[in-house]
Amino acid sequence: RAPLQVTELVLDNCRSSNGEIEGLNDSFKELQFLSMANVELTSLAKLPTLSKLRKLELSDNVISGGLEVLAERCPNLTYLNLSGNKIKDLGTVEALQNLKNLKSLDLFNCEITNLEDYRDSIFELLQQITYLDGFDQEDNEAPDSEDDDDEGDEDDDDDENEAGPPGEYEEEDDEDDGASDLGEGEEEEEVGLSYLMKEEIQDEEDDDDYVEGGDEEEEAEGVRGEKRKREPEDEGEEEED
């Protein structure tokens, strides 16, 4: 894919040479997410101009200063991760004031985090940011798309729990089930008995019909026999005449 079309680029664990990674240049015009974690980056002096870049991951490098370059070359950054670098004082971070769209900054495991009133100082210095090291000034955690989904599921669970202790309903359901089972059983017995009785009545009627039918057939055969007997006698009488 041509650099012009790339929107996300992950170069974690690659090795930078003289402060740059070979091939990373200004041709990545559409780049919005760039990750260069643990690439032994000492400086940002050779960072290319990436005007559409929103998220920049620079954790676990050896950057100690020169952050003013970010505002010049990545002016639209909203998220910057500098955790695990060599940033020691507020003066170094002050250069990020020009990143007007910056909302989240991570400085985990940097020496600066050991300063007294570190969090208050950073929020005062960089008034445009909402989250520092994943939390806002009131210690509310920064939202994450996956966490939002999980929270939604938890809310659903809470709603179910608020409806009342499940045990009570389960017991009631069991009682209802037991009662309905008994009811069905009784109905089944009643239906079964009446059904059997009907069947027996029908069987008796069928037997009677069969017997009657048999008698009729026997009678018919007797009549035919008589006719056959009569016919020869009639013929004999005619011959005598």
TrEMBL record:
Residues 221-232 have a biased composition (Basic and acidic residues). Keywords: Chaperone, Chromatin regulator, Cytoplasm, Leucine-rich repeat, Nucleus, Repeat. It is found in: Cytoplasm; Nucleus. Residues 134-241 are annotated as: Disordered. Its main location: cytoplasm. One of its GO terms (molecular function) is phosphatase inhibitor activity. One of its GO terms (biological process) is chromatin organization. Residues 135-191, 201-220 have a biased composition (Acidic residues). The keyword Chaperone applies. GO terms for cellular component: cytoplasm; nucleus. Pfam families: LRR_9. Belongs to the ANP32 family. Multifunctional protein that is involved in the regulation of many processes. This is Acidic leucine-rich nuclear phosphoprotein 32 family member. The lineage of its organism: Eukaryota, Metazoa, Chordata, Craniata, Vertebrata.
